[in-house]
Amino acid sequence: MREWRGPIAAAVLLIGAVPAGAQYRALVNIDWVNHRLAGHVDDYSHNHGADRRLDSPVLGRKRDLYVYTPPGYDPRRQYPLILWLHMAYVDEHAFIGGHPLQQLDAMILRGEIPPVVVACPDGTYEGENHIRSTHSLFINGKGGRFEDHLVGEVMPFVMSHYSIRPEAKAHGVLGLSGGGFGGMSIALRRRDLFGAVATLASPVNVRYDDIRPGGPREDFHPSTYRWKAAYDPEEVYAVFSFGLRQTRARKYIDPVLGSGPEVSDILQYLNPADLLFTTDLQPGEMALFCHFGGRDNWNFDAQAMSFAWLAASKGVHVELATAPLATHSLSYFNRHQAEAYRFLGRHLLPPTGPWMLALRP
């Protein structure tokens, strides 16, 4: 057991802690971003002088969205789609404010991955670029029906305004930390919409526990693994600064799901590891990828490994990748998104080619 590493409790769905500096707020110049891309980011936000947000009857308010189109985007073709779901302490600004988007753009130019459209919605309750905004986990919770917004408003908007392949196996999710919890949970339950999921340092088994003294803080081992039976709002989920700073479950769970006895059942229903069984995922039905830091402060590495082990018991393959020395930090997320994009590029249906255009009436 690594004593300094935080126990993420069995049910942490949530959000990993990221330094406050991770929030880009309104400091990102969209013209500057697009000047450095061969592709283009379309702005449906109120972050750059004008209010272009999507109306959301589901959430009862306007919502921000960015959509990236690849180099050479041609509406006569149809492209795969990736939903990019951010972590906590940031919002949609993180998608355009960092180096990974330029990496994606360059990989497409070099032919490392096929051209793809990427949509990044705002997953915060407040929607106003506050550093400490409450993360929705992209699920239906106390602050709004964010899952319904994602699949019932964001997806239809992007597919009606851009040329996207309609097949589920052309649609993927890239989720970071808490965004990976919601993304993996939704995709497993909505295999009619999605064919591939990639997560970075995400709680994909929020009911992770261990029979050894450290419980959910322990490293994963098949012989000592067990399911966590109940949600404890006082459980320490993560430890930072060599134990001087600790985060308890209630900080992230209570705003989204509340604190009543029903929370345990809700977490079990949403938990990606449980969904492997409750949705009866079959081998080859979905492409799954989990990347993690070997020193993750939330013990998300143990969750990812237990998720892959549980999936293997059903004959389902989960591709794992790790940065052995990485902690749950902004630098980790910036450095490793390219690996997730490569995975999705291999498993999503490619854009339709010119030969397909000739077959159309």
From TrEMBL:
Pfam families attached to this UniProt entry: Esterase
Bilayer-spanning residue ranges: none
GO MF: acyltransferase activity, transferring groups other than amino-acyl groups
SUPFAM superfamilies according to UniProt: alpha/beta-Hydrolases
Family matches, as InterPro entries: AB_hydrolase_fold, Esterase-like, Mycobacterial_A85_antigen
Stored PANTHER family: DIACYLGLYCEROL ACYLTRANSFERASE_MYCOLYLTRANSFERASE AG85A, ENTEROCHELIN ESTERASE-RELATED
Record's protein name: Enterochelin esterase
Organism (species): Tautonia sociabilis
